[in-house]
Specification:
- A 4-stranded mixed sheet has the order 23-25-1-26. A 4-stranded mixed sheet has the order 2-15-17-16, covered by helices on one side.
- It has 2 domains: 204 residues, UDP-n-acetylglucosamine1-carboxyvinyl-transferase, Chain (Alpha-beta prism), CATH 3.65.10.10; 217 residues, Alpha-beta prism (UDP-n-acetylglucosamine1-carboxyvinyl-transferase, Chain).
- With 429 residues, the protein is an alpha/beta fold.
- Helices cover 31% and strands 27% of the residues.
- The chain has 14 helices and 26 strands.
- Strand 20 and strand 21 form a beta hairpin.
- Helix 8 runs parallel beside helix 9.
- The structure holds ligand EPZ.
- Ligand EPZ binds next to helix 1, helix 5, helix 6 and helix 12.
Length: 429
């Protein structure tokens, strides 16, 4: 299994290209199941999760073509993916495939909307909390889908097609909103989604669905209205930049000091996190090319932050901020409100010398003068990358084990960091 070696203490200088967003790419690829025509996605990141979803779509009979680079394309360009679900040969998504990636459960929506049936394995537990799918099932039921749970599978049936309806989410759910949007697009009549997630990835997927012929309005607000259509058609769509990757590298620069342009980043996608970085003591500037982050000399100020659905501070940046605050001058507090068990990085950060105590859903981080390298590992991708951030500022060598977590969500991480002066190396095998 690959590991990453990081020798800390170098500041970061240069340019880091920001890739297409993982959490938009996955639902966009799944949305291809809604049409027999070809969906062309551009700026798709090279990630293990994309390859895994390709396997899942192949199993339904979907053709996924990853095109090579065109001449003149830089090596940093995302890939173009052509997806054609002309014939769906199998409406079952088996346990072996779904258990590897939670978002693959979302195929249930386009399958039942287009084919009238779907049999999808329940995704099961996850390292960051229980993560149930009750709200996704509720949303489909509101559109007339009958769902039974049998032997670990959700079996969805709608022989006469879906009917538009009112879906009121009792809590904000990104996956629930994606599922509702996809299913409602092919339902008969109008669907109103209340308390919808407002994440930029929802807006990106809604934009793409509209290019395919859907009639969705209000994406990005708490109320989304979908007028169902009988069929969706072909489209070409470029995936929006990854706000979590942007925030992660911005925190890495705040941690090490330096001056880095996060190329293609869009500041409005992560304003709350950039505001926090400003409080911490980094300088964040929007430029024509992206977002520039600098920090020179001065120490880091502690902060109090609570994770919230968009536009609040994202849970997917919580671990990275915690790593940064291990070096602040004073005590920070970070409260996690989205997932009940997303503090797996605390113990590993402690191995590098961090002082963190937990009180329920709140972590108190007492800044220390220095961190020291050690072997570490983590159980999800954001936790893994938080260890990378801490390691960049630690004395000596840190070995991050279980790199496959990083490969699920960060494209060419070691390459992007080492080009800016970090001593980061992948050890294969
Ligand atoms: C998406 O997960 C993201 N995944 C997650 O990113 C992200 O952390 C999360 O949204 C929150 O922003 C993708 O986009 C592929 P939710 P999702 O439904 O959709 C509860 C990463 O690191 N809930 O918004 O699964 C749930 O337990 C990942 O890239 C129910 O109770 O998250 C949680 O407490 C990890 N019942 C809250 O809602 C349900 O049926 C929000 O979850 C569904 C969710």
């Amino acid at each position: 299994m690959d590991r990453i070696s990081i020798k800390g203490g170098k500041s970061l200088h240069g340019t880091i290209p920001i890739s297409g967003a993982k959490n938009a790419t996955l639902p966009l690829m799944i949305a291809s199941l809604l049409t027999e025509d070809t969906l062309i996605l551009e700026n798709v990141p090279h990630l293990a999760d994309v390859v895994q979803l390709q396997r899942i779509l192949n199993n339904h009979g979907v053709d996924v073509m990853l095109s090579g680079k065109r001449s003149g394309d830089g090596e940093n360009k995302g890939q173009t993916v052509k997806i054609s679900a002309e014939k769906i040969v199998d409406t079952t998504a088996p346990y072996e495939l779904v258990s590897k990636m939670r978002a693959s459960f979302w195929v249930i929506a386009p399958l039942v909307a287009r084919m009238g049936e779907a049999r999808v394995s329940l995704p099961g537990g996850c390292a960051i909390g229980t993560r149930p799918v009750d709200l996704l099932i509720m949303a489909l039921e509101r559109l007339g889908v009958q769902i039974e749970i049998e032997a670990g599978y959700a079996i969805a049936r709608a022989p006469k097609g879906l009917k538009g309806g009112e879906i009121v989410f009792p809590k904000v759910t990104v996956g629930g909103t994606h599922v509702a949007l996809m299913a409602a697009s092919l339902a008969d009549g109008t669907t109103v989604i209340e308390n919808a997630a407002r994440e930029p990835e929802i807006v990106d997927v809604a934009d793409c669905l509209n290019k395919m012929g859907a009639r969705i309005s209000g994406a990005g607000t708490t109320q989304i209205v979908v007028e169902g259509v009988a069929k969706l058609g072909p489209a070409r769509h470029s995936v929006l930049p990854d706000r979590i990757e942007t925030g992660t590298y911005a925190m890495a620069v705040a941690m090490t000091g330096g001056d880095v342009l996060l190329e293609n980043a869009r500041p409005e996608l992560l304003q709350s996190a950039l505001d926090v970085l400003g409080q911490v003591g980094a300088t964040v500037t929007a430029t024509n090319e992206g977002v520039r982050v600098t920090r020179n000399g001065a120490g880091l100020a502690p902060v109090e932050v609570t994770t919230e659905p968009f536009p609040g501070f994202p849970t997917d940046l919580q671990a990275q901020l915690m790593a940064l605050m291990t070096r602040a001058r004073g005590t920070s507090r970070i409260t996690e409100t989205i997932f009940e068990n997303r503090f797996m990085h605390v113990q590993e950060l402690a191995r590098l010398g961090a002082r963190i105590s937990l009180d329920g859903q709140t972590a108190m981080i007492e800044g220390v003068d220095r961190l020291k390298g050690a072997p570490v590992m983590a159980t999800d991708l954001r936790a893994s990358v938080s260890l990378v951030i801490a390691a960049l500022a630690a004395e000596g060598e840190t070995i991050v084990n279980r790199v496959y977590h990083l490969d699920r969500g960060f494209e060419r991480l070691e390459d992007k960091l080492s080009r800016c002066g970090a001593e980061v190396e992948r050890i294969t095998g």
